[in-house]
Amino acid sequence: MKIVVHIDDAAQWQAAIEKALPQATVLTSDAPAEARANADYLAVWKAPAHLLQEQAQLKGIINLGAGVDHLLKTPGLPSDVPVVKLRDAGMGELMADYTLYGVLHFYRSMDRYAQQQPNAEWQPHQVPEKSHWPIGILGLGAIGSLVATHLSQAGFPVLGWSRSAKQISGVECFHGDAGLDGLLSQVQCVVTILPDTAETHGILNAKRLAKLPQGACVINPGRGSLIDEQALLDSLGKDRKPGHLRGALLDVFCEEPLPANNPLWQHPRVIVTPHMAGPTPLSDAIDQVISYLRAFEAGEELATVNPDAGY
Ligand code: NDP
Question: Which of 28, 60, 81, 294 has its CB surrounded by the most CB atoms within 10 Å?
Answer without folding.
Answer: 60
